[in-house]
Amino acid sequence: MNVAPGTIQVWSDLLCPFAHVAIHRLRTTRTELGLDGVVRLDHHTFALELFNGPHSRPGTDSEAVGLGQLAPEIGFRLWTQPDWTYPSTVLLAAEAVHAAKAQRLQASEDLDAALRRGFWFESRPIGHRQTILEIAADVESVDVIELAAALDDGRARSAVMGDHAVAVTDAVQGSPHLFLPDGTDAHNPGIEVRWEGPWASGYPIAQSNDPAWPEKLLRAAAA
Hints:
Strand order of the largest sheet: 2-1-3-4
Number of helices: 9
Keywords: Isomerase
Domain DSBA-like thioredoxin: 7-183
Structural class: alpha+beta
Low-confidence stretches: none
Distance between the termini: 18 Å
Pfam families: DSBA
Protein name: DsbA family dithiol-disulfide isomerase
Mean pLDDT: 91
Order of helices and strands: EHEHHHHHHHEEEEH
GO molecular function, one term: isomerase activity
Shape: globular
């Protein structure tokens, strides 16, 4: 991976709870270390739905419960809105994150975080254009008019599919997978789980949880 200095490249899916934990811990630790503005997150799409088909609410709910016990400070919530509003696809939201990146890297990072909050905390259907733009309107770093234009003409779709062309290779192992400028990489850092029942649709049982990994990666990216 070609990773720019001062960045951590993050490959993930917006509905992946493991990615939500990793990104939350990266952002929180970065602030604690005083590295905001020093280390940026460069988001890329590991689109689980392009591997597995439409997102499954039961699988997401079981993972959220399991990881909510592992990392209660992150505040996972089960889906509380009607079933028919659950986002079975988030490809348009992934396009939005890429389109925001064309504005600037900080806009992309802020929108990604806001979309994850919208889904995991507020049960918002982030696969829908209107919801994406409503969330973006509250993100100061994002130009919403430009974002709407990008969604409407599909200019970021090729970036999502370009990421998928990489995701299907051995270069990326899953969501989340982090890459540093020095060549270091970490897949689902700090967490090891086993599955009670079918993998990714049963219940994840944590076997290890190391909250110290973000500091190591952030300091390495800043060096």
